[in-house]
Design a protein that fits this description.
single chain; 259 residues; mainly alpha
Length: 259
């Protein structure tokens, strides 16, 4: 195994584990605050009686809390680099259960990007059972990198097709609905010129993200901009899951750009 791949694997495992740990802490805290998710209503959407009865038990308070605590412990194990096929499979299964519990996603695309990371982890350990570990992780890292790159690419080119993004109006609308409420009337962020400049900058950066694979130096630049972008999303909208979910895919992007 090359040093580059070994470092990429360790960084990927640590960041993915940290992202999972933070998400799990949120789920544990949410149990006492949740006034929306009612399993007795959601269970009617499960067609199979046997699966419904099994999920009735899983989502009872004690088993559900136990699953979350186990998920937290497994996340720490992953951060420490001790996750094997069994742990990868359990984390993947728990992610599916949580997606089901929240009707597909609790926090939008960040949950699906987390699932991409867990799929890559499961793919690596699954393939390693039938092939050498270097090849298995090579395939897994490429899977994670391509999924991450495509998420930026699609987002950028969808923005390009929307007139409100091309004009910059969408930027102001989104910021008006941020954590801190509407922007002040005299905020510089209300400037049409600045809004259009920022909108086009983000649109082109996302749409051109696949170019990161051409050279590792390009990948560093694209990932650095992405880090700032996701931090701003967290700052203005409180979406901390987005920051760590996508950040955990950057080691895969950097690795694939370097091979």
């Amino acid at each position: 195994m090359s040093l580059d791949q070994a470092l990429a694997i360790r960084a990927f495992e640590f960041l993915l584990g940290w992202s999972l740990l933070l998400q799990t802490a949120e789920y544990l805290r949410l149990r006492s605050l949740d006034r929306v998710g009612n399993w007795q209503v959601q269970r009617a959407e499960v067609p199979s009686g046997q699966i419904r009865r099994a999920l009735d038990w899983v989502f009872q308070p004690m088993p559900y809390a136990s699953m979350l605590w186990l998920r937290g412990a497994l996340s720490i194990t992953l951060m420490l680099g001790h996750a094997g096929p069994g742990i990868a499979a359990m984390l993947f299964a728990m992610a599916l259960l949580l997606l089901l519990r929240w009707r597909g996603a609790f926090n939008g695309g960040s949950d699906f990007m987390t699932l991409v990371g867990l799929t890559g982890l499961l793919l690596a350990h699954g393939l390693a059972m039938f092939n050498d570990r270097v090849t298995a992780w090579h395939v897994a890292l490429w899977y994670v990198a391509l999924q991450s790159l495509s998420s930026y690419f699609v987002s950028g080119w969808v923005k390009l097709m929307r007139p409100e993004w091309r004009s910059g109006r969408a930027m102001t609308v989104f910021l008006d609905h941020g954590v801190y409420g509407p922007l002040p009337e005299k905020s510089i962020l209300r400037s049409p010129v600045l809004a259009m400049l920022c909108s086009w900058s983000f649109t082109l950066w996302e749409g051109l993200f696949p170019l990161a694979l051409l050279d590792v130096r390009l990948a560093v630049v694209f990932c650095a901009i992405a880090t700032v972008f996701h931090f701003l999303v967290f700052w203005f909208f409180g979406l901390n899951r987005f920051f760590w979910a996508w950040l955990s895919t950057f080691p895969a992007i950097l690795y694939c750009a370097s091979v």
